[in-house]
Write a structure and sequence with these properties.
The protein has two domains: about 1-35 and about 105-139, no CATH class; about 40-105, no CATH class. The protein is about 20% helix and about 40% strand. The chain has helices at about 60-65, 85-95, 130-139; strands at about 1-10, 15-20, 25-30, 35, 40-45, 45-50, 55, 70-75, 80, 100-105, 115, 120. α1 (about 60-65) crosses α2.
């Protein structure tokens, strides 16, 4: 059984002291709100693409946008060709067309993953006791 001894930092990177039986150890716990659908990395801010895909960085967003077959028009109804746009023009057009937006996740209830040994683990798979430790650490 684990007992929480002390806490520091934010929910995104918690340094806590835990006690297991008679030995004490310090362990940094890293939590992430979302997982990038392209790189698999954890993220607490980034792009939401098409209201369901999380993308961590500009390059992957641009590559994703360029990989789509978009039909676009400007405000006057003139045909636009996204394949001929610069990266900046493409991002501006896609943002204005509400294809993506930038956001961050800062609330405790946004936490979905813990990074353990470089891999993301879905905290929904944790036991109630493990989830209680996370919740108590964040309050």
């Amino acid at each position: 059984m684990m007992d929480l001894i002390s806490e520091t930092a934010s929910w995104q990177s918690l340094s806590i002291m835990i006690q297991t039986n008679s030995n004490k150890m310090s362990k940094e716990r890293i939590f992430w709100a979302r997982q990038c659908g392209i790189t698999g990395e954890g993220m607490n801010e980034g792009y939401l693409y098409n209201d369901h895909e999380y993308i961590a960085n500009d390059k992957d967003l641009i590559d994703t946008l360029r990989g789509q077959d978009f039909t676009a028009e400007d405000e006057d109804g003139n045909q636009l060709y996204p394949s001929k746009m610069t990266d900046e023009e493409l991002m501006e057009w896609a943002y204005n067309d509400e294809i993506y937006y930038w956001t961050d996740w800062v609330e405790d209830e946004d936490i979905q993953y813990e990074e353990i040994d470089g891999k993301l683990v879905d905290i929904q798979e944790y036991t109630e006791e493990e989830q209680a430790i996370i919740t108590n650490t964040n309050n």
